[in-house]
Amino acid sequence: MTLLYLAIGLVAGVLSGLFGIGGGVVIVPALILLARMPTLTATGTSLGALLLPVGALGAWTYYRNSHLDIRAAALLALGLAGGVFFGAAFAQGVAPGSLRRAFAVLLVALAVRMWMTAG
Q: What's the first-to-final CA gap in the chain, in angstroms?
């Protein structure tokens, strides 16, 4: 499992650096499908992996190239801090199957929207 977790982290890191994604779009589905981890455990594990130092490394590279809006990032972080607390608390009461289905619907809806609005 160690190599699987490292591989998932590597893929998520590359995609995070390229597209700003990683946790919900890559790590959580990979942990559920490849590592056979329960949905809530996969979500919590993803959040644990994405604590401050990880994002800071990627953000530093973007900052050095003038591609980071610090004010917007700080406001997003403030919203994330509150949102993740309430979202995690809510998720504890949702049936695992329902949570997985809702997550899949979200991913499909986002994918369709991105596809339709691509230039």
A: 40
